[in-house]
Amino acid sequence: MTIMAELDVSKPLPAITTEAKPFWDAAAQQKLIIQRCKDCNAWVWTPRPSCNECGSEKVEWTPMSGKGEVYSFTVIRQVVGRAASKAFEPDIPYVIAWVDLDEGPRLITNIIGCPVENVKLGMKVSVQFEKASEKVWLPKFKPA
Amino acid sequence: MSITNKAAIVGIGDTPTDRLGSKPGEPRKSSAEYLAWAMRLALEDAGLSLKDFQGQGLGVTIPTAYPQPFWPEEVSEILGITPGFLLGGATGGAGAVSLLGGMSAAINSGLIDLALVIGAAAPFSEHWGGGIQPGDMRDWEIPYGTMGPNSKIAMVMRRHMHQYGTTLDHLGKIAVAGRYHASLNPLGYLRKPITVDDYKNSRLVADPVRLLDCVMPANGGKAYILASPERAKTLRKKPIYLKGFGERSNPSYGPRAGSDALIMGVKDAGKVAMEMAGVKHKDINFLELYDDYIIVVYLQIEDLGFCEKGDLKFFENTDFTFKGQLPIQTGGGIINCGQPSTAGGVHHILEGVRQLRGEGGDRQVPNAKIGLISGLGVLPYGKNLGCCAVAILGNEV
Above 0.90 for ipTM, yes or no? Predict the structure, then answer.
C-alpha cells in the first residue's frame, strides 16, 4: 500500500514570468527596482511589457529608494481558503499591508520587524528582502 | 449613445438559497438543478416557454471558481437552448448588470428580441477546485499570505476609517437596514433583525472586517428575461424598462500604479447611466447595491454622488429603510440573501424589478418609479473593485 505524501504545505511562490524576471533577479541582490516609462514618466507596476498609462514600450527598470509608508493594512489571525494558506499558519498573527513607495507605486507586502500592534497608517517603512527560495527574495517592509 | 427604453425585463426567477451539501448525508443540489429551477420560475413569471428562446439571446454569469472556459455553452445544453447570441458575463459579480446592458444593446440592434440571463452556483455541494490562475494574485499577493478578498477589503475599510473618521456606527447602520429588509423578504436567508451593537460585536474576520461585514456564500440560481418593448407589450407582466446603463472596468483614480483605493468605478458608471436615463439623484426612489461587504455599499452611496465623500452627517441623518429618504438593499442584499458566486449579482436586479412592479410586499418602497442597480466584481491588486456596472430601471416609458 502506498502511503500518501503529506499535503504540500510550502508557501506558494510567484511564477518568474518574462516580464518579472529582472525584478526577481534584482531582489535576489537586495535591490528593489520598478519599471518606469521613458516617454510619459509613469511608474508601471506590477511588471508589464508596456506602459499602461500611455502604451509606450519604452519601459525601463529603475532603482527605488526602498522607502515608503503604510497606506493601509490588515492583521491575519486565521488562515482560510486554499490548502496552501495553511503554510502561513506558523506566522500568525502577521500583517498584510499596502505600502506606498516614496516614488509612488503601491505594493502589497508584509510589515515585519515589529509587533503587529505597532503598525499604523502613515508609518514610515523601509524595504527588507526575505528569502523564499533560491530564486525568490520577497520585498517586505520594516519600520524605518 | 442611448439604449433607454429599448429593452424591458418581463420575467424573473429566484430560487431560495441554501447552504446544504457540505456535510455527509445532507440533501444537495447541483448548479445544473439551480439553473433549471431558476429558468422555470422566470418562464412561468413571463408566460413564455423554452421554445421561445431558440435562436434568441442567452447570457450566463461565469462563476469565479469554475475553471471551464466554455461554461456558457454548457449551460445552453443543460437548459436545452440553442441560442442565436450567447454571452458570458465575465465581469465577476458585475456580470448580471453587464449582461443587462449587453443584451439590451443586442435587442436594440435587432439581432434578437428576447433574452434569458441566468446564473447559478452551488459552492457548498459542488467542489470545483481550480488552481491558482496566472496573474497578479498568484505572483504578487498570495506569496505574502493574503487570505482572499477579505484581506484587501479590510485595507480599504481601514483606510476609509482613517481618512474620513468613519466609525462602526456609520457602517453598522447599513448592516442593520439590510437585515431589516431581509426580515421582511420571504426569500431572505438571514432574517433575524440585528442592532448596531450586534454588528459591532460580531467576530473579527480580517481586522477591521467583521463577520457581519461579509457577504454570505450560498447555493442558488437566479434569472431574468429581457424583451424588446414590442414583445414586452404582448406578455403578462408590467414591463420594467432599462432607462440607463454605464460600465467601467479597471477604473483608476490617480496613477494606475498607486491610485485612490477609496473611489469606486461606480462614480463614472453611475454618471453615464443617470445621464442616459435623464434622471437626477432626487428622481431615484431606491438603490440595490452590490454588497460583497458593508464598506462597499457605503462607498457606492458616496461615489454615486448621493453625498460628498466622507460626509458622515449624511449617513447619520438618512433613513435607509424602505420607508426612508433613501431606501437601499430593500430585499436584504446578498449579505443576507446569499451569494451563489457571481450569480449573486442577479439578486439586485430581481429585487429592483419586484419593487418597480409593486411586488415588494411588506418592504414595498412607496410609489417606486425609478431604481438604481449596481454590480461589482473582482478585487484587483492595489485598487478598489475592478468591474463596476450600473443600471437604471423604471416602470414607465
Answer: yes
